[in-house]
Specification:
Order of helices and strands: EEEEEEEEEEE
Radius of gyration: 14 Å
Distance between the termini: 37 Å
Helix content: under 10%
Low-confidence stretches: none
Largest sheet: 7 strands, mixed
Number of helices: 0
């Protein structure tokens, strides 16, 4: 399974950005049956949970740091997961990673529960 994240870039404080992650490859039952998530990581720090969405898109979870400013969504027909971010702050300046588990999983904020990772896309919020 390969995850390809895109959409990062430079944005001003208070601006918006949409990250996307395309999944390809094979799993036992297809990625549409798996929870997908976004994490983020600053240089020298641990990878932090941002948001996750259940396989059918009916359940979502967000970290306190982004709750109310971020919306996660998915399109199972295209095997993509997106992260729409609003009201961006300088502390949102980090690398964002999409992730998928190797088994069926409910919403989890633990990085250790995810097996497949994208290469990361960098977001820079300038003041």
């Amino acid at each position: 399974v390969q995850l390809q994240a895109s959409g990062g870039g430079l944005v001003q404080v208070g601006g918006s950005l949409r990250l996307s992650c395309a999944a390809s490859g094979r799993t036992r039952s297809g990625l549409s049956n798996y929870t997908l998530a976004w994490f983020r990581q600053a240089l020298g720090k641990e990878r932090d949970f941002v948001a996750a969405i259940t396989s059918d898109g009916g359940g979502t979870g967000y970290s306190n740091a982004v709750s109310g400013r971020v919306t996660i969504s998915r399109d199972n027909t295209k095997n993509t997961v997106s992260l729409q971010m609003h009201s961006l702050k300088p502390e949102d300046t980090v690398v964002y990673y999409c992730a998928a588990p190797d088994r069926n999983l409910l919403i989890s904020s633990e990085a250790a529960h995810y097996y497949y990772w994208g290469q990361g896309t960098e977001v820079t919020v300038s003041s």
